[in-house]
Amino acid sequence: MSIARLVQNFSQRRALLASRDTRAIEALTGTLQKLGLGVELMEAGESGLDLGGAGADPARDILFLDGDLNMGATSSPEAVLPAIPVIGLVGVEAPSRLRTLVTAGATAFLPKPIYGGSVYSALYLGVNEHTRRARLQADVDELEARRRLRRHVIRAVVDLMAARGIDDEAAYQIIRREAMRERLGLETYCERLALQRAGSSHVDTASPTLRAAAD
């Protein structure tokens, strides 16, 4: 896994403020604008706050979410990484308020009352930690997708072993070379073989290129 470059400059980004705390909004707005961010206030709809849904830009937007809000349907049983970074504003340090922010996907916290000197640190941690978690999740999703396709690799190896009377290593290397020649991942190539084989009972008739490689 490649290491993501850490973000240090937040100018040209947009801060979405979800809070009814006038003092917090004023303090945040002034500091964020000095750091080059645009600032917009968010209002909760009937179904709660939209955490990075319609209109949100993952490459640009950052949500400052006040834990003192009554967010209603915003919370869910399990923490889910939202599309955009979330920085939690902490006023009342009750476990239920903190749990709500964690469930909403907060990757950094900013205590109230807000002081200008603490905003940049929260931005730095919140944005870069969100990026790190998103990359990890993407890697996990990719590995899970490959795991699901592994059964096609096993089937292709077994079929080729039976068709050519070769061992598993030889069959695997043949299939691997064919996948590389087709510029496909091994799992994707074997999935394609499985689809070709759907109307056939033998790997040789299902894949002419694989038959040629085995000769």
UniProtKB/TrEMBL annotation:
Highest taxon of the lineage: Bacteria
Q: Where would I find the ANTAR domain in this sequence? A: 133-194
Q: Key word Heme present in the record? A: no
- Show where the Response regulatory domain sits: 14-127
**Biological process annotations from GO:** phosphorelay signal transduction system
Pfam families to which the protein is assigned, alphabetical: ANTAR
SUPFAM superfamilies under this entry? Answer: CheY-like
Question: InterPro entries under this entry?
Answer: ANTAR, CheY-like_superfamily, Sig_transdc_resp-reg_receiver, WH-like_DNA-bd_sf
Q: Does the keyword Disulfide bond apply?
A: no
Tell me where in this chain the PTM 4-aspartylphosphate is found. 66
Q: What is a GO molecular function of this protein?
A: RNA binding
Q: Which UniProt keywords apply?
A: Phosphoprotein
Q: What is this protein called?
A: ANTAR domain-containing protein
- Tell me which species this is from: Aureimonas ureilytica
